[in-house]
Specification:
The complex is a heterodimer.
Chain A: E1 4-5, E2 9-13, E3 18-24, E4 33-38, E5 45-50, E6 53-56, E7 61-64, E8 70-75, E9 84-91, E10 99-101, E11 105-110
Chain B: E1 4-6, E2 10-13, E3 19-25, E4 31-38, E5 42-49, E6 56-57, E7 64-70, E8 73-78, E9 87-94, E10 104-105, E11 109-113
Parallel strand pairs in B: 2-11
Antiparallel strand pairs in B: 1-3, 3-8, 4-5, 4-9, 5-6, 7-8, 9-10, 9-11
Chain lengths: 111, 114
């Protein structure tokens, strides 16, 4: 059964780069790895997806090694407003195609 | 923008009551999902639906059922609420199976069962 592992919490300071890694095994070979951001009192919000190597958008970068057993969300130069919970989302290997969210990483950005 | 609306932000019910949580999306999405969110456990999938009148069990379907009579509406039903179902419930939708990983979430319903 696929399992994901993320750090429970991380602290950072404004202006720093933050990297959050999600470890995942037994994930589908043909599906995206996806990351979400969640602020208090809101539902999670999609921020980035990737299949392999590196993907970058206006919000973040996502690094995925060739074996796809982990993925790293990189937030450049964080600000106080990046304080949130970050989740990885993967798809189970096999024909079930079920989606599995990680337990979430609470990022606290300090001034 | 996609809008996913959950009927209640807060709900208080008594043990044994039948509870309906309603979710409506306005973007003609094929897929809809129900999750519960608990501290330390992240989001856990209860049920999902890839089409009208279709439903599939997620990881924790016990004690829940769902209904999808119309494409835009996905209802979660607690047949007989119990205190261990006190939680935050989140509804989501995605365009289709190919984009099932890109989900749009509602703001959530915080349910307390007394």
């Amino acid at each position: 059964l696929a399992k994901t592992t993320q750090p429970i919490s991380m602290d950072s300071y404004e202006g720093q780069e933050v990297n959050i890694t999600c470890s995942h095994n037994n994930i589908a070979t043909n599906d995206y790895i996806t990351w979400y951001q969640q602020f208090p009192s809101q539902g999670p919000r999609f921020i980035i997806q990737g299949y392999k190597t590196k993907v970058t958008n206006e919000v973040a970068s996502l690094f995925i090694p060739a074996d796809r057993k982990s993925s790293t969300l990189s937030l450049p130069r964080v600000s106080l407003s990046d304080t949130a919970v970050y989740y990885c989302l993967v798809v189970l290997l096999g024909n079930t195609g079920k989606l599995i969210f990680g337990q979430g990483t609470t990022l606290q950005v300090k001034p | 923008d996609v809008k996913v609306t959950q009927s209640s932000r807060y709900l208080v019910k008594r043990t044994g009551e039948k509870v309906f949580l309603e979710c409506v999306q306005d973007m003609d999405h094929e897929n809809m999902f129900w999750y519960r969110q608990d501290p330390g456990l992240g989001l856990r999938l209860i049920y999902f639906s890839y089409d009208v009148k279709m439903k599939e069990k997620g990881d924790i379907p016990e004690g829940y059922s769902v209904s999808r009579e119309k494409k835009e509406r996905f209802s979660l039903i607690l047949e007989s609420a119990s205190t261990n179902q006190t939680s935050m419930y989140l509804c989501a939708s995605s365009a289709n199976r190919e984009a099932k990983n890109i989900q749009y979430f509602g703001a959530g319903t915080r349910l307390s069962v007394l």
